[in-house]
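Worked Example 4.2. Consider the chain below.
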Amino acid sequence: MTEPVSEQSLNTPEFENNAGQSNNNTFARRVLRNTFKHWGARIGLFWIALLTLFAVFAPLIATSYPLLMSQHGVISSPVLQHLSPVDVTLLIAFICAVSLWRIPLGPEKKPILFLIVVSLALVASYMFIKPPKLTIYEQYRVQQQAGTID
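Applying the procedure from the previous section yields the following structure tokens:
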């Protein structure tokens, strides 16, 4: 059987919302707090965040192109020249998500703003980013051996 609600139990944080005060102890916060008080959940979240970070920056980390080079006094970045529109959109989406996480906006505005920014980035990257069609990975090694790369 359920116990009757006493006046003392009404003064708990769960019932303060009825008095007109804002209640920061929402259901989602309680679920997150109860979930992440366990070490396994914290380690799992860290692992997912680490994999996401490596996936976003994989085109810059695992590449056969030089990050930066100087040829005849001109500095260029072959990695950036060979990024695909999807790579650029993924980088912009990651930066947008991290930025929106830190900006104090309402929870209903953040997903809409994220979708708008990512949609615009996707359209713009497919319009303006054209990586070279033919990829010769060896050309930079040959140029370095010949001494044409400073």
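The radius of gyration is 26 Å. The mean pLDDT is 82. Compare this with Example 4.1 before moving on.
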